[in-house]
Amino acid sequence: MKEIHELEDFLSKTSFILLKDLAPGTVPLWGQMNAQQMIEHLTLAVEVSSGKHDMQLHTEKEKVEKIKAIMLLSDRPMPKEFKNPALPLVPLDVKHKDIEDAKQALKQSLELFMHYFKNEVETRRMHNIFGELNYQEWLWFHYKHFTHHFVQFGLVEFQSRLS
Fold first, then answer.
1. Is 48 helix (H, G, I), strand (E, B) or coil?
2. Cα separation of 113 and 23, whole Å?
3. Of the candidates 1, 12, 14, 41, which has an alpha carbon nearest to the alpha carbon of residue 115?
4. pLDDT tens string 74-121
5. How far, in Å, CA of 66 to CA of 96, rounded?
6. 140 Cβ contact list (under 8 Å, min separation 6)
7. If you write DSSP's letter for every residue of 50-117 in order, what string do you get?
8. Given phi > 0 = left and psi -120 to 50 = alpha, else beta, which region is 54?
9. Rounded to the nearest 5 degrees, what angle is found at the Cα of 18, between the Cα atoms of 151 and 38?
10. pTM
11. CB of 66 closer than 8 Å to CB of 129
12. What is residue 89's predicted lDDT score, i.e. its pLDDT?
């Protein structure tokens, strides 16, 4: 797993370099989301991690640690077409007027997320699949989640193992 500062740097800097040229009409390699819906989807996940939305656990409690170890804390990328049981099968409607506003909202959400955990170091927030996560675990989740969607939109190449 990457160090905290590497994950923070990816989320706050590298991801926006990659998103810079993402156009509204970019066609995904799989899935139903358009480019703006994908950005807003990432924003929603960041908002969950910083306490803006509360989640209920969808995984059986006795299976959380095993699923967390295999799917989250490993170097395995998220699988294509991964379905989160907390989300509808049809992509959510966009909230922002355009893709640039959506990118700005993502940036602000990430800043709030990092600020939230800087002030609440011991805090753990519920992820609906992986249970309660601390700051480093949320950073790793966001890194894997962003990378998954960046592959989906051709912004980065697929890697069989994340480093």
1. helix
2. 26
3. 12
4. 999 999 988 898 898 889 999 999 999 999 999 999 999 999 998 887
5. 37
6. 1, 2, 7, 72, 73
7. TTSS-----S-GGGHHHHIIIIISSSPPPPTT---TTS-SSPPPP-SSSHHHHHHHHHHHHHHHHHHH
8. beta
9. 55
10. 0.96
11. no
12. 84
- pLDDT (tens digit per residue) in 56-69: 999 999 999 999 99
Q: How many other C-beta atoms can be found within 10 angstroms of the C-beta atom of residue 150?
A: 20
Q: Provide φ and ψ at 42, rounded to 5°.
A: -60, -40
Give the total residue count for the chain: 163
| pLDDT reported for residue 122 | 86
CB 64 within 8 A of CB 131: yes
Q: Is 156 left (phi over 0), alpha (psi -120 to 50) or beta?
A: beta
> And the tokens for 140?
């790793």
